[in-house]
Design goal:
Elements (H helix, E strand, L loop, with lengths): L9 H7 L1 H10 L4 H21 L4 H20 L3 H5 L1 H18 L6 H4 L11 H30 L5 H49 L8 H4 L8
Helix pairs in contact: 2-3, 3-4, 4-6, 6-8, 8-9
């Protein structure tokens, strides 16, 4: 089976990472009040998406665990170490979760890639290989953002907007790669099926021909239906 390529849309990615995107936007004000609001809103949004089935799989459970931890550590306890390392913890958590799904043989993008794809293709080698490639790309994005946030803590001389621009560039690059690569693999799968169609049709015609050219025509003719 050649399989089918996943159709990963930009919208499905945005929806999957929506609590994290909202967290980044609200928390960018650099005040404790905004950080607490970002944690609570993102946690509530993740819970809502889980209840409504708008999000599933590793990203859902990772978000729920992370924002629940932040609710306790930041909103209730106001732990300054967690506040200072929030960017590293967020990106590092996403990297660890994505990497573990690859080690477990179930890359996290499977949850999104299987939407709109027939179940008989879910375990096809080409389909799984595409999911591994896309998940690897997101692992690289999360790792780069983790490193960026480490530099932000220990090298504060650079302007804050430069670090944010770098993080956003990595995220947008990951989303763009996902969309373009999925479309590329989809075209390849369609081309493979088109190339295979004539060969399959020829095999069917060959199987359907019961007569040898050397046999008399009478022997090749199909038997007549019995008279009633």
């Amino acid at each position: 089976m050649r399989g089918k390529s996943p159709d990963m849309s930009f919208f499905s990615l945005v929806l999957g990472f929506l609590p994290w995107i909202v967290f980044m936007i609200i928390a960018s004000g650099h005040s404790m009040a905004q950080l607490k609001a970002a944690v609570l809103v993102s946690f509530a949004l993740a819970v809502y998406q889980g209840i409504k089935g708008l999000q599933r799989g590793t990203i859902l459970w990772t978000g729920l665990a992370f924002f629940l931890f932040d609710t306790v550590a930041v909103v209730i306890m106001e732990n300054l170490w967690v506040v200072r390392h929030m960017g590293v913890l967020a990106s590092g958590t996403l990297f660890a979760a994505a990497f573990v799904t690859m080690l477990a043989g179930r890359p996290f993008v499977l949850s999104y890639a299987r939407e709109g794809v027939d179940r008989r293709y879910w375990n096809a080698p080409g389909f799984l290989r595409t999911c591994y490639v896309i998940t690897s790309a997101w692992c690289a994005v999360f790792l780069l953002n983790t490193v960026t946030n480490v530099f932000k803590i220990y090298h504060p001389s650079l302007p804050h907007w430069a670090y944010e621009a770098a993080e956003n560039t990595f995220l947008l690059s990951g989303a763009l790669f996902t969309s373009l690569y999925a479309k590329h693999r989809k075209k390849q799968a369609a081309a493979s099926r088109s190339d295979a169609a004539p060969h399959e049709a020829a095999e069917q015609r060959s199987d359907a021909a019961p007569c040898d050219a050397a046999k008399p025509e009478a022997e090749c003719a199909p038997p007549e239906a019995p008279h009633t």
